[in-house]
Amino acid sequence: MSVAFRRESDEEHLEPRFELPIPAGPNFVTAAGPALIAARVAALEADVAAATDESRDVLSRELRYWNTRAATVEVVALPTDDEVGIGSRVTFRLDGRERHIAIVGHDEADADERIAFAAPLARALMGTGPGDLADFQGRTDAIEVIAVENS
């Protein structure tokens, strides 16, 4: 019989489920990071315990990721008063618009106000201070640092 006419199961077409990728490099976090990660682990453990067979695999995979992140956490001390680093809240001007962000670890980041230290914007800001200009996205002096809060 031709391969074109054989019945294949739906399972043959499913994508394999790989482990969630761990970001490269150290797992730096702010002082609040370990508690955030521990809360995520606790929530996932409860979800796994209550899960059905279908969702248990997905939740277990996510739990393994967060357990690994909890085991490798490295709390970073705040930088000096006027230098941007992990844990800093920065006010800056980019493209004529004033913005406020916090630079945090990968697992503490969100899309709006907290960005991971490895993000391009965070890398451009790291090491700068109030009044400094920084290059960004191939443009010279694209970012003007207005204020830095490290507390």
UniProtKB/TrEMBL annotation:
Residues 80-149 form the Transcription elongation factor GreA/GreB C-terminal domain. InterPro entries: GreA/GreB_C_sf, Tscrpt_elong_fac_GreA/B_C. The keyword Protein biosynthesis applies. Keywords: Elongation factor, Protein biosynthesis. The keyword Protein biosynthesis applies. GO terms for molecular function: translation elongation factor activity. This is GreA/GreB family elongation factor.
